[in-house]
Amino acid sequence: MKTLTTTAALAVTLYAGAAYAEINACLITKTDTNPFFVKMKEGATQAAEAKGINLSTFAGKYDGDVETQVAAVETCIASGAKGILITPTDSRALVPSITQARDAGAIVIALDTQFEPADAADATFATDNFKAGELIGEWARAKMGADAANAKIALLDLSASEVSVDYQRDNGFLQGFGIDIKDPTDIGDEDDPRIVGNDVTNGSSDGGRTAMENLLQVDPDINLVYTINEPAAAGAYEALKSFGKDQGVTIVSVDGGCPGIQDVAAGVIGATSMQFPLLMASKGIEAIAQFAETGEKPKNTEGLDFYNTGVELVTDQPVEGVPSISSEEAMAKCWG
Amino acid sequence: MSDQTMPPRKGQDYEQVLDGSATEVAAFERRNETVLKRIQHILHNNPTLVPVVVLLISLLVFGLIAGGRFFSAFNLSLILQQVSIIGILAAAQSLIILTAGIDLSVAAIMVLMSVIMGNLAVFAGVPTFFAILAGLAGGVGAGLMNGWFITKVRLPPFITTLGTWSIFYALLLWLSGAQSIRGQDIDTNAPFLKFFGQSFDIAGARITLSSILMIVIFVVLWYMLNKTAWGRHVYAIGDDKEAADMSGIRTDRTLLSVYGVAGFVCALAGWASIGRVGSISPQSFYEGNLDSITAVVIGGISLFGGRGSILGALFGALIVGVFRSGLRLSGVDVLWQVFAIGWLIIIAVAIDQWIRRISA
C-alpha cells in the first residue's frame, strides 16, 4: 500500500513535471538592426508561442560580433536549452561553441548562414544565395536580349572580407548572366570585358551611392547594376539620378524587404530575388519541437547541404523562361 | 617743423658706446640647426601645413597614375560631395577633440536626428520646416546631454559618449523600426528634407549644396575658434584645463557649449545626409564616428587637445576622399584602400608626436 502511494506520488510528480517543463530554446541572430533579423525574431517568437516553447533571443552588437554570440551560446547551454537557432556571424569561429551545445544535448540549427563545415550544425535553413543571384542574372540577360553582349556591368558587393553570401550572390548573378565566373568563391577574379568593376557598399544606401559614383567615374556608360541588397540598390539609384542616368540603366538586387519591393513597383529596381526569413524561423522552431518530442532531426534539400527555404524572383517586367511574381503579389510576402 | 630737418640725434656721450653693441632683438641661439629642425619649427607654428602638403601631393600622384579621369573638375567636385557628410561630422569632432575630449556618438546623433526629421515630416505630417527644427533642436539636446555628463557628473568624455552612442543608436532603431524611409516617400511628402542634395554645374564641376554647407560650417567654426573669446577659451581648456580654470575661464560652461554646438553640427549633418543618401536609413554611416576621428587625426589636430586648426579636419576628410577615389580609379582592390587609410592615420599621429617633441 505504502509503495503504491509513493509510486503514485512519484508518477504525479513526473506527470506534472512533464506538463510544466517548458521546452527552452534560443534564437541568436547577427544583429538587432537589420530588418531581416528583426523579422526573423518576430517569426520565431510567434512560432514559439504557438508551440508553447520558451524562447530566449540574443543578438550580436554588430555584424561580426563573435564574442557576444559565443556568450549567448554559453548562456543557452547553461539554461538547458533543448534547441538553438543561430545565424552565425562567423561561419568558422562559432563551431567550437555549438559543438559544446550539441554535446550538452541541444539541437543546433543554423539559419540563413551556413557553418563551415555545414555539418557542424544539426541542420541549416537558408536561402540558396547562389540561386538568388542566378535568377536576377538570367532575368537581366533575357531582358537585355541582344544587347547583353555589349552590357556594361557594375557589381556593388558587401564588404572587403568577401563572406559567403557576398560571393554566392555575386557569382550567381554573373553565372546567370552567362559570364565565366572562374573561382565561385572569389569576387572580382573574372576577366570578362563587360564587367566595369566591383566596389563595396556595406549593404547600406550611403555605401551604395558612393560605390556607384566611383564605378560611374570608371565608365559612365554602365547599363546594368548588380547590388548585394536593396538599400544598396536605392543608394545606387540616387547616384545614377545625380549623374542624369536613371533612365536606361537596369538595377537588380536580392532580399525582398518591403521597401525593396516598393522600389520594384516604382521602377527603381528592375528585379529582386526575395528570400523568406519568417519561414527560416518558423521551420527552425518546428524542428526544435519535433526534436524535443521524437528526437528526429530535419533533413536537407536534395543535392544541397542545407534545407532550402526558397527564393522567388520579383519583377513587374516578366521575361520568358524565368518564373517570377509581380511586385503586387510580393507585397503580401515581403518582410520588414 | 625744424625737428624734421635736424640730423639724427646722437645719444649722450656715455651712450655712444652702444653703437658698437648688438642691435638684434633678443633671441635664442640657433646653434647647429638642421633643415629638419627648421621644418619641425615651421610645422609647429603651422599645424595645418602637413595635411595641405599631403593633400596636394596625393592629388598630384593620383593625377599622374589615374590620369584625366581622376583629375577632372567633375571628379574633384565628386570627391568634395562624397566627403561632405563625414566632413561635417569631422568639424563637430574637431571641436570636441580640441578640448582634449573625444565624441564617439557623433554619427549616432546625426542618424538619429535624420530619422526624427523623417518620421515627423514623412509619417506624422508635421510641416517639413518644423520637423527640421525639431531635429536640429534634438541635436543640441543630445550634445548638451553629453556635455552635462562630462561637466556635471564628471565622467570622462570617452566613457560618456561610448554610453550615449549606444543609447542614441538604440533610440534610432526603435524610432525607425530598423526600416529605411524610401526616397520616393520623401519626394512626395517632404522634398525640402533633400534640400542639401541639390546641385548645380560650373565649368564641368558639379557643386552640391551639402559640399557648400560643409565649407561654410568649417569657415564659421574657424572664425569662432580664432576670432572670438569663446574660441580662445576652447583652445585654453584643451591645452590645460586647470590653468584655464585658474585664469578665470568658466571651463564647465564653455565645455557644455562646445558639446551643444557639436550636437547642432551633427544634426545639420543629419539633414544634409538625407539629401546625399536620398533615403533615411538607420543602417547608414555606422562607421561615421571612426571616419570622423580619422579625418581629424589626419588633419593634424592633436588628440591631446588645444593644438591644431579646425581647417585641418577639412583637409583630413579630403585626403581620405582623394585616396579612396584615386585608388579606386587606379583599379586598386578595396582591401588596399583600407590598408592605405590605416597607414595615413599612423603616419599623421607619428608626425604630430614628432612636432610636439619640439617643446620638450
TrEMBL record, chain A:
Entry's localization field: Cell envelope
A GO MF label: carbohydrate binding
The keyword Lipid metabolism appears for this protein: no
Pfam family, one: Peripla_BP_4
Keywords: Signal
Main location: other
InterPro entries registered for this protein in UniProt: Peripla_BP_I (IPR028082), SBP_2_dom (IPR025997)
Domain Periplasmic binding protein: 27-296
Signal peptide coordinates: 1-21
GO cellular component, one term: cell envelope
Family: Belongs to the bacterial solute-binding protein 2 family.
Official protein name in the record: Substrate-binding domain-containing protein
Organism: Pseudooceanicola pacificus
Lineage: Bacteria, Pseudomonadati, Pseudomonadota, Alphaproteobacteria, Rhodobacterales
From TrEMBL, chain B:
PANTHER family given in the database record: ABC TRANSPORTER PERMEASE PROTEIN YPHD-RELATED-RELATED
Protein name listed in UniProt: ABC transporter permease
Compartmental location: Cell membrane
UniProt keyword terms in alphabetical order: Cell membrane, Membrane, Transmembrane, Transmembrane helix
TM region(s), chain numbering: 48-67, 73-92, 104-123, 129-150, 162-182, 202-225, 256-274, 294-322, 334-355
Cross-referenced InterPro entries: ABC_transp_permease
Major localization class: membrane
Domain of life the protein comes from: Bacteria
Pfam families: BPD_transp_2 (PF02653)
MF-aspect GO terms: transmembrane transporter activity
Claim: Transport is one of the keywords in the record: no
Topological category with respect to the lipid bilayer: Multi-pass membrane protein
GO cellular component, one term: plasma membrane
